[in-house]
Amino acid sequence: TSAYGVPIESKATDADGFFNIGLWPHNTFYQFPYSQCMGTFMMIPLDEERTILRFGYYTPHEALPAISRAAMDWMNNELGPEDIDLNITVQKGLHSLGYDQGRYMIDPERSNESEHLVLHFHRLVYRALHGQGDPIQ
């Protein structure tokens, strides 16, 4: 078995899963399965139209394992650029103080395909910009 093109050298543990935690308003902490590292990104608004995204990676290992290096490479060269391109495409030309368009796929069981966290985040953004009202019902 392999991950990121690198053989997995040990049995899977509870620590080998995925997590993604957003810390409002600008920070995210995440781990990809088997990566043996934690990643962060910080969104830094420059003005109304531009944002810088800063990535960081952290590992408890003194020497970086090959699987960690491969996971970082995958994020930096495949998944990250793909996500950035998707976000630019969706948001280009909005020029708004909040996004209130489109539909969300909400699963009452909160499966990993549900967008309940996206909806929650959009509500946080709206409230931060406009007060306590909720445009999304």
TrEMBL record:
It comes from the Bacteria. Residues 13-129 form the Aromatic-ring-hydroxylating dioxygenase alpha subunit C-terminal domain. It comes from Tamilnaduibacter salinus. Its cofactor is Fe cation. InterPro entries: Ring_hydroxy_dOase_asu_C_dom, Rng_hydr_dOase-A. This is (2Fe-2S)-binding protein. It holds the Pfam family Ring_hydroxyl_A. GO terms for molecular function: 2 iron, 2 sulfur cluster binding; iron ion binding.
